[in-house]
Amino acid sequence: MGEHNGPVLTKCWEKFLKSKSCVFDRQQGTHHHWKCPKCWRTITFWGHKKEVPRFHIRTNLKTMGLTNSIFNKWVNDNC
Fold this sequence. Notes:
Elements lengths: L7 E2 H10 L3 E6 L2 E5 L7 E4 L4 E2 L1 H11 L3 H11 L1
């Protein structure tokens, strides 16, 4: 889990967002929306599923100005 292109547990992704000072904003249908400081748009992902697909994570990491390798290292250390 958390390596390369595999999905990541939703709980782990939300824990990562909290570690970056992001806060849950709202839920619209099956999508969860989070607000992060210094992000130019809302972080959005399927919050109703057990795992978040990697393409959702990569898109949101770009919004946050972070790389996939930074996220993978964080997952290996914290999840």
